Amino acid sequence: MDFLKQIDLSNVPEHIAVIMDGNGRWAKQQGHERLYGHNFGVESVREVLKGAMELKVKYLTLYAFSTENWNRPKEEVEGLMDLLVRTIGGEIDELNEKGIRLMTIGDMNGLPDSCQVELKRAMELTAHNQDTTLILALNYSARWEIMAATKRLAEEIQNGTLTADQIDDKKFSNSLTTVGIPDPELLIRTSGEHRVSNFLLWQIAYAEFYFTDVLWPDFKKEDLFKAVIDYQSRERRFGMVSEQLTK
């Protein structure tokens, strides 16, 4: 079935966020260690990015590594960091060829030096691209992000450059790591889990949620298309009633 033909390309989310879950379970089903699943998950990243570009999605955010993931076994974390460096380093030419800009959100200072160097190089070399922006959430936690923004605003008040009355939604949003990036309209989570896991808690206030039982290494661009088709079947009211939207 050609799912792409079922999509109204004039009503595609500008920003899609994805919680990539299920790599470890997929690996165990294959009789391998968890890192085996993460390696195969890289191909799903390529697939989803390809699908996003076909749909002309402007922003694609992938939850790649949370602050809580540091609690995983040392071997898995080290393997993930090595995989990140190798993957980013090997994809720069293709990102440029396809007009993809790379960005990150999260506490980059908490990543190994090798990751920081490779990510900085990739972002600098792709900064001029304008077709699709791929955002990797690395060492990311929404609570960390909100706390950091709150502290920055408190410091401005303490310094006398800001008053409490001047803080509104826009001011707070501009203090987050996603400043300049529109909020996601669609949040996808794979592997059958129904939770947001400390991801973009401020930004997904009005996002549509799509949960699928597909494990991340099995998630292909057709699965992305299915999520968008489901998104387009919904009525986005933003607190209003249906009658108000037709006026």
Series of H and E elements:
EHHEHEHEHHEEHH
The CATH topology is given as Undecaprenyl pyrophosphate synthetase
CATH arch. level architecture: 3-Layer(aba) Sandwich
Question: How many structural units, i.e. domains?
Answer: 1
CA-based gyration radius: 19 Å
Neighbour order of strands in the largest sheet: 3-4-2-1-5-6
Oligomer: single chain
Number of contiguous helices:
8
Strand content: 5-15%
The top-level CATH class is: Alpha Beta
Instruction: Tell me the major beta sheet.
Output: 6 strands, parallel
Which word captures the global form? globular
Total strand segments: 6
Poorly predicted tracts of residues? none
Provide mean pLDDT, rounded. 94
Derived structural class: alpha/beta
List keywords for this structure.
single chain; 247 residues; alpha/beta; Undecaprenyl pyrophosphate synthetase; six-stranded parallel sheet; 8 helices; 6 strands
